[in-house]
Amino acid sequence: MKITKKLYRVSNRILLIVGGALILLAVMVASTKPQTGSALPSDLSSAMSKYPSLSSTSLNTCDLCHTSSVPNLNPYGAAYKSNGRNTAAFGLIENLDSDGDGFKNIQELNSLTFPGNPASFPSVPTATKTTVPVPTNTSVPNSTKTPIPTVGAPSATPTSPSNSASITIGLAPSSVIVGSSSTASVSFNNIPTGGFASAEFTCTFNPAVVEVSNIATTSLFGTDPVTVVNGPKNGSFIFAIAGSNGNKASTGGPAFTFAAKGLQVGQSGIDCQPRVSTGNLVLVTIPSTPASLVITTSGQGTLTGKVLAGKPVTVTLYDSGNSVAGSIVANVDGTFSLPGPAGTYTAVASAPGYLKAQGSVNLTSGNTTTLQVITLPAGDIDGNGVIDQFDALTIGINYNGSAPTEADLNNDGTINVLDLEILARSYRQTGPLAWH
Amino acid sequence: MKKLFALILFVVVSLSSVVTVNAQTAESLWIQANGTSYKTNETASIMINGISTTPIQGFTAQIRYDPACLQPVNSTSPISGMNGLAVPQASGLADVSFASTTPQTANGVLAEVRFTALKGCQTSLNIESAALVVRNESGFAVPVSGVNINQNPIVLNIDSTVGTPQPEATGESVLPLAPTAPHGPKHFNWIVALSLALGGVLIIFIIGLFKFMSPSEG
């Protein structure tokens, strides 16, 4: 009987150990990530979610945030991690120059270079790297004069990565006919606790197609703020505002407004680069989202939308006679705004080496027609409407070369296996894609 | 009379041979098998042959096969500098493309395509599409025009007797041809974890049951 009891106790303990071990093993297996793919696919997914146009480029790899010795982070990856390691974190670090190569992270992403690698930077100066014309400072009191930053250049101005404040420029309406005006509102978002004591905005626009006037402050900085306006002149102006008697901007909303009058048919980006002070006499740059004003003539409508590709996208309107009625190169983020006379057209989105998208649109006078966001599949190098073996062969016979540029699908200047990898994702797809 | 008949027969055979050779001396592409009989698990080698009067910078061939009988393995080209282009492979169609950055003479075997015999069956393979490729003035790969492509099927007899597979191909450019494997269940880890957890709970339940039914300590 004693032996039976002892055997029972021993088997009881063994079963308890085995059971516990199985549960522990279950927890370990459940927490194991698949071994294939990126070490941290969720981070890369967040990046592609924030920047969909990068999804078919060489930036859609671990190299975006890691050094060659994964899992070591590069400076961009470290900044992303320290800002919360989520989709919003990418927005917070856009205006930093993580790798110190003289280009902001967002500029590098737009140019398809690595923001965490100082050896990778845009090869040609981008439009935003041009120095903003410096207006005369006659109306700016000496005591409040501050250096005007060179947009896009390495910034000597301190930045605050933990600050999620930003500004947005709204246009009402976003499309006007020649001679009429749109009201632009420059608004703060996510003002931190403690508020802003002062702010300075360097605004730019295309003076050939837009005239700016009626720059007016709001009550965001209190009822009696001190303001300084310099310009507008040569397509830019500076608006500075400071709350008086300790007043601060403590909630989001418009800081000032101005009128933008259409001078001729065309399109103008309107941007205001902000720098703010919390009251400690230090100006900090915060991000801004520019707007675009479309100027049309009477009887014209506007087509807008967003087309994503790893190369510059051209949107063209064809009339019923298959003649080109209008064409525009989309912005870096894929958005476009194309004016055209009222009528029915075929809209075609194209990019070198990519399948096209095509759809019928009806433009009506004074109205904006918006097409769905669409991503062009990469790989139709010879432009015959199908991604096939001849496209792959064009990559093969031009390996390590740079021409034809259609074969350089990721736009990095070299035709190689990365382009073949991009092509393989859409192999055998045919076009044009239906665009609604 | 016998001599005359033999002479006529010789002339006929000679002429037919010449006609056959002439058919392949124009720009042409065709496939041929190293053998027609294989055992299960053995490697069947199919040669892509080509003749071109102008140097080429690549070639492509899409070979239709029965995936129930044959499993494509890989392909290599004996032409130095011809590199395989790995593109997604569909089941039932081996997509073989090789490219070179410099023009190459193409006369004879362009590539060897290896298949594993899966089971006892009689099956056939044929070229569905193919091309010899040159680089045009703009840098794009374009097919050589007027190439005679022989699409006649090759018949293979596979015995159910199990044989020995050929050693793995080695070389500077081995083009894998295995069809893209279907993705496994996304929640495989969770299924395993749940099974293990249930097993653990079951064992603890058994222990409890043992205790409940065990003889008293006293």
Largest sheet of chain A: 7 strands, mixed
Radius of gyration of chain A (CA) equals: 27 Å
The interface involving the most residues is between: A-B, 45 and 45 residues
Mean pLDDT over the residues of chain B: 82
Helix content of chain A: 10-25%
Q: How large is the count of helical segments of chain B? A: 2
Major sheet size, sense and barrel closure of chain B: 7 strands, mixed
How much of the sequence lies in strands of chain B comes to 35-45%
Strand content of chain A: 25-35%
Helix/strand/pairing class of chain B, anyone? alpha+beta
Low-confidence stretches of chain A: 28-39, 124-162
Choose one word for the global shape of chain B. elongated
Span from first to last CA of chain B?
119 Å
The protein's oligomeric status is heterodimer
Number of DSSP E strands of chain B = 13
Count of DSSP helices of chain A?
7
Which spans of chain B of ≥5 residues are poorly predicted at pLDDT below 50? 15-24, 183-187
- Given helix and strand content, the structural type of chain A is alpha+beta
What can you see in these coordinates?
In chain A, 18% of the residues lie in helices and 30% in strands. With 436 residues, chain A is α+β, with helices and mostly antiparallel strands. In chain A, strand 17 and strand 18 (357-363) form a beta hairpin. In chain A, helix 6 (389-397) packs antiparallel against helix 7. The longest helix of chain A is centred in the first third of the chain and has 29 residues, at 2-30. By secondary structure, chain B is an alpha+beta fold. Helix content of chain B is 23%, strand content 42%. The longest helix of chain B is centred in the C-terminal third of the chain and has 26 residues, at 188-213. In chain B, 28% of the residues are buried. The chains are: A alpha+beta (436), B alpha+beta (218). The A-B interface holds A 1, 4-5, 8, 11-12, 15-16, 18-23, 25-27, 29-30, 32, 34, 381-382, 389-401, 403-404, 406-407, 420, 423-424, 427-428 and B 57-58, 60, 62, 83, 85-88, 90, 95, 97-101, 131, 133, 135, 138-143, 189-190, 192-197, 199-204, 206-207, 210-211, 214-215.
